[in-house]
TrEMBL record:
It comes from the Bacteria. The lineage of its organism: Bacteria, Pseudomonadati, Pseudomonadota, Gammaproteobacteria, Thiotrichales. One of its GO terms (cellular component) is periplasmic space. This is Peptidase. The keyword Hydrolase applies. It comes from Leucothrix arctica. PANTHER family: SERINE PROTEASE FAMILY S1C HTRA-RELATED, SERINE PROTEASE HTRA2, MITOCHONDRIAL. It holds the Pfam family PDZ_2. Belongs to the peptidase S1C family. GO terms for molecular function: serine-type endopeptidase activity. Keywords: Hydrolase, Protease, Serine protease.
Length: 376
C-alpha cells in the first residue's frame, strides 16, 4: 500500500512508553546476542589513506535543515478523507505535528518544505540546527505537487544550494536529513534507486526520485542531498510497512521542480501551470507497428482542442510526442509534468512522430483552463 510518510503524528505518552519498552527490549536482545563476540576495531586508514567519511559534508549541510512543528490544525482546511487515504489516519482537529524543511535563502529567510507539513496550521515553529527557534509565516503552498514555502526572521542563517536534479543517475549516493519520529536531526544514507517515478497516486504532479535511504515519519519536507551537500530533492513519501516505518522505498520531489515552484510561490503566492490543450494516453506494445514507432516511449495524442496551443502548432490526433522543451517524454504522466511546470508564455519545442516521420514544432504554453479539464 502506497502512503504518504506519516509526519503529522500526534504522540501519546502511552504509545511512547510502549515503543520505548519495545526499543529497549530490542537493544537488549541485540546486546545479549553479540555479548560473546569479539569484534576487531576499524582501521583508521587503508594503504595510508583515511577512510571515507560524510562528516565534513554533513557539517556544511545540516545547519540548513530545520525541524518544523505545527499546532492548531484547522479541520476545515484539510480534506480528512484524503488525509486518511494518504496517511492512514484522519488528522485530528487541534493536533500537533512535526516535519522538516530546508533553508534556501539565508538573506530573506525562505524555507521549503512539503505543503502537507504546514497545511491548515495555525502556528508554525521552526527550530534550527543550533537550537534557535522562530515563528514562521506561510508564503505559499502548492498542494498539487506538495511543496510549500515559509519564511522566518533572517538571523545568521545558512542556506543549502540546489543541485540540478536532471543530472542525477541511478546509483548516485544520497543522504536524507530530517527529524524522524521527532527524535531530532538525523542523517541516513543510500543511493538513488530510480528516477522519474510517476503514476503512484500520491500527488497530482509526480516525477519522484526513488531512494533506499531510510526515510521515516518526521522526514517529510527534509533534504535529500548529494555528496557535495547540495539539495537534490525534498523527501515526501514512503512505501510503508505495517509499522509505518521505512522499508527502503522512499520518494523525493526533484530539486528542479522544487526550484520552479518555490520561485512562483515567492513571487505571487501561487503556482500557475501551463497546458498544450490535448488529450493524451500511454502507448502499448501493439501500437508500435500502427504508429510506426521504435518503442513505447512517448505520449499519444487522442484529441486536440480547437484553438489550443497544440492546434496552433499543427499537432493532430495520432501524433506521438517524444520530446517537449528539450525533455524526453517517457509517458503521458511525464508529459503532463513537463508541460505543467513550464511558465505561461514559454515557447516550447515539441518533437513528435507522425506516420513514422520525426517532426518538430513550437507551441506557446497557455494557462490551464480549469473548465476544460485538459492537462496538458
Amino acid at each position: 500500500m502506497l502512503k504518504r510518510e506519516v509526519c503529522m503524528t500526534k504522540w501519546t505518552t502511552d504509545w511512547f512508553s510502549k515503543s520505548t519498552q519495545s526499543l529497549c527490549g530490542l537493544l537488549l536482545a541485540v546486546t545479549l546476542s553479540y555479548s560473546g563476540v569479539v569484534s576487531a576495531a576499524l582501521p583508521s586508514s587503508v594503504n595510508g589513506q583515511p577512510l571515507p567519511s560524510l562528516a565534513d559534508m554533513l557539517e556544511r549541510a545540516m545547519p540548513a535543515v530545520v525541524d518544523i512543528s505545527t499546532e492548531g490544525r484547522n479541520s476545515n482546511t484539510v480534506d480528512n478523507n484524503a488525509y486518511q487515504r494518504l496517511f492512514g489516519r484522519v488528522a485530528p482537529k487541534d493536533s500537533k505535528g512535526t516535519g522538516s524543511g530546508i533553508i534556501v535563502d539565508a538573506k530573506l529567510g525562505y524555507i521549503v518544505t512539503n505543503a502537507h507539513v504546514i497545511q491548515g496550521a495555525a502556528k508554525i515553529k521552526v527550530t534550527l540546527n543550533d537550537g534557535r527557534e522562530f515563528l514562521a509565516e506561510v508564503i505559499g503552498q502548492d498542494t498539487e505537487a506538495d511543496v510549500g514555502v515559509i519564511q522566518i526572521q533572517p538571523e545568521r542563517l545558512i542556506a543549502m544550494k540546489l543541485a540540478n536534479s536532471n543530472t542525477l543517475r541511478v546509483g548516485d549516493f544520497v543522504v536524507a536529513i530530517g527529524n524522524p519520529f521527532g527524535l531530532g536531526q538525523t542523517a541516513t544514507s543510500g543511493i538513488i534507486s530510480a528516477l522519474g517515478r510517476s503514476g503512484l497516486g500520491i500527488e497530482s504532479y509526480e516525477d519522484f526520485i526513488q531512494t533506499d535511504a531510510p526515510i521515516n515519519p518526521g522526514n517529510s519536507g527534509g533534504a535529500l542531498v548529494n555528496l557535495r551537500g547540495e539539495l537534490v530533492g525534498i523527501n515526501t513519501a514512503i512505501l510503508g510497512g505495517r509499522s509505518g516505518g521505512s522499508v527502503g522505498i522512499g520518494f523525493a520531489i526533484p530539486s528542479n521542480m522544487v526550484s520552479n515552484i518555490k520561485s512562483q510561490l515567492i513571487q505571487s503566492g501561487e503556482v500557475v501551470r501551463g497546458q498544450l490543450g490535448v488529450e493524451i494516453q500511454n502507448l502499448s506494445s501493439d501500437m508500435i507497428a500502427k504508429y510506426k514507432l521504435k518503442d513505447t516511449e512517448g505520449a499519444l495524442i487522442s484529441r486536440v482542442v480547437i484553438g489550443s496551443p497544440a492546434d496552433d502548432a499543427g499537432l493532430k490526433s495520432g501524433d506521438v510526442i517524444i520530446q517537449a522543451n528539450g525533455n524526453r517524454v517517457k509517458n503521458s504522466v511525464n508529459l503532463k509534468n513537463i508541460i505543467g511546470n513550464l511558465r505561461i508564455g514559454t515557447r516550447a519545442s515539441i518533437e513528435f512522430v507522425r506516420e513514422g516521420r520525426a517532426l518538430i514544432t513550437v507551441a506557446e504554453i497557455e494557462k490551464v483552463d480549469s473548465r476544460s479539464g485538459f492537462r496538458p
